[in-house]
Fold:
Amino acid sequence: MPAKGKHRRPKSQRFARSIAVAAAGGAVLALPLMGAADAHAATPAAAHSVTQTAAAPAAAKTYAVKGGDTLSKIADEQNVSGGWKKLYSDNRSVIGGDPSVIRPGLKLTIGQKAAAPAAKSPATATQAAATTTGSGYTLPVQGSSIGTAYKTAGAMWSSGYHTGVDFVVPTGTPLKAIAAGTVVSAGLGGAYGNEVVIQHADGKYSQYAHMSSLSVSAGQTVTEGQRIGLSGATGNVTGPHLHFEIRTTPNYGSDVDPVAYLRAHGVSL
Structure:
């Protein structure tokens, strides 16, 4: 028959609920063990879930601007979140201060902000400046091919021949003043549609015809390469292009060879 009284718990059980850990100074402290539920929360699997890394962002891609492109068109085709404003914001260091001017061949970054161009060394900067302003003249439009040449004969022209040269470009392509000068006329010019005529320091006049829109007005001073409007197909045309003339007066019939004129001023065609 068992002895009466309270049963004493074996001493070994007193330590089953504690664990010895080293404390500062070499002392040993007995800390309570966690309950079963708490112990499960500290398993390696749970710890791993806390330290998982976020997925890497999608890689950016580069888009080369083509003739006729606009930021809005590119943003739509490339599904840019935020539209053309986001595309421009990300590429402002590449495009410059005017979002409506993007030249063919320009590389745009889609998906993240483009890196700012590396600073040029003094020698490189001097060379770049010489390329831009060395002769004071530039092409009226970039990234184009020449269509109808100067003096091409034909009944479609009232003079019996082509009085300028045609640059084949799609509607909306930026057009530039070939050199510094003063705008003597800007507006509708009969068969020429929307046109701009600029007088230059050497007394010659450059004419830009069939434009879809104008960015300058009569009396305004322009610089070499300044945008004067966009190409189009206004007036008597069979398709969009820039009709470009060099004249000895601001009027029709005083034309000279525009290609020879540009080449004489250091512009390659």
About this structure: The domain at 145-264 is CATH 2.70.70.10 (Glucose Permease (Domain IIA)).
